Amino acid sequence: MHAKILEHQLVTIGVTCFNARDTILRALESAVAQNWPAIEILIVDDCSMDGSAAIVRNFIASDPRAKLIQHTQNLGVGAARNTILAHARGEFIAFFDDDDESRPGRVREQVRVLTEHEEATGASLIACYAGGERLYANNYRVDAPAIGSEGLIPMGAELADYLLVFKRRPGRFYGAGVPACALLARSKTFEAMDGFDSQLRRLEDVDFAVRLALSGGHFIGTAERLYIRHMTGGAEKSPEAALEALNSLAEKHRSYLELIGRYQYAVRWPRLGYWHFKRRYGRFAAEFLALLVRYPFAATRHLLATGPARLVHEHKMRKGRVA
Question: How far apart, in whole angstroms, are the C-alpha atoms of residue 101 and residue 258?
């Protein structure tokens, strides 16, 4: 089975939008430019206050493939994604973010990679991620290869272990993780997972992937770089919001984390990032020493794997150097 045989099958492109008047047209232009012949485009405006909905409405007025759905109150990105799922008619569903842009062949390539993996493995729960790059305001670019696009395919509980406590298996390729802005899957896969958690305003995509992993899901990706993720700021991306989101994720999956003996690790590791961003290095050291006593090997491996790379990344963000 090849993607060209499936071209008659509808693909839903879902775009979540919130206060994105400066970027939403870029996202929509990349959606309507997809070279898959059968698409619908669902845009959910999550009660924007900056006129984004009017911009969307004007842009799609002459395109019968596109539809705008407006929330009457701000519900968060998890709920917005679920609204897309509730209205989607496509056999496949792909998510585009309101400040990103996708290349014209993104949907086609993701459908091809997913269907070929189905044929080769017989797997039914598959999440396919596009490779891409992250672009910062100072023109600093970071390559973002797709998970599972080389090496061994992450699958099952081992992927949940990686996402929750950074436990990596040899040979697996985790790439740039599991961002929803790069995700395409069959509608039945989203249905099997009951969609996203509407209570999560951050990390709803990681939570979805954890639940899919614990259900035996496969995580694959395209070798091609097919989207540009524009890295923007906002209160929802503050250190406080990040810490709260990670704590919520750990609490939601507490039973599994306790089963593998890593609940306290999942709760305490995010504090290191928080104290680092706050430049409270004494608190950082104390927190790390406490982790080191309880999880000496895991904490050491985790810090060595991520710490130096984090410092280099922050330096390049300040300098605007090309990665």
Answer: 39
pLDDT in tens, 87-106: 999 999 999 999 999 999 99
Q: Using the CB atoms, write b or e for 92-118: b if 16+ within 10 Å.
A: bbbbbbbbbbbbebbbbbbbbbbbebb
Phi and psi angles of residue 199, each rounded to the nearest 5 degrees, phi first = -80, -15
Residues of the chain with pLDDT > 70, as a percent, come to: 95
Three-state secondary structure of the chain: CCHHHHCCCCEEEEEEECCCCCCHHHHHHHHHCCCCCCEEEEEEECCCCCCHHHHHHHHHCCCCCEEEEECCCCCCHHHHHHHHHHHCCCCEEEEEECCEEECCCHHHHHHHHHHHHHHHHCCCCEEEEEEEEEECCCCCEEEECCCCCCCECCECHHHHHHHHHCCCCCCECCCCCCCHHHEEEEHHHHHHCCCCCCCCCCCHHHHHHHHHHHCCCEEEEEEEEEEEEECCCCHHHCHHHHHHHHHHHHHHCHHHHHHCCCHHHHHHHHHHHHHHHCCCHHHHHHHHHHHHHHCHHHHHHHHHHHHHHHHHHHHHHHHCCCC
Centre a 10 Å sphere on the Cβ of residue 292 and count the other Cβ atoms it contains. Answer: 14
The answer on pLDDT for 318 being more than 80 is no
Q: CB of 17 within 8 A of CB of 26?
A: no
Which one, of 43, 51, 48, lies nearest residue 74 by Cα? Answer: 48
The two beta strands, 183-186 and 92-97, are: antiparallel
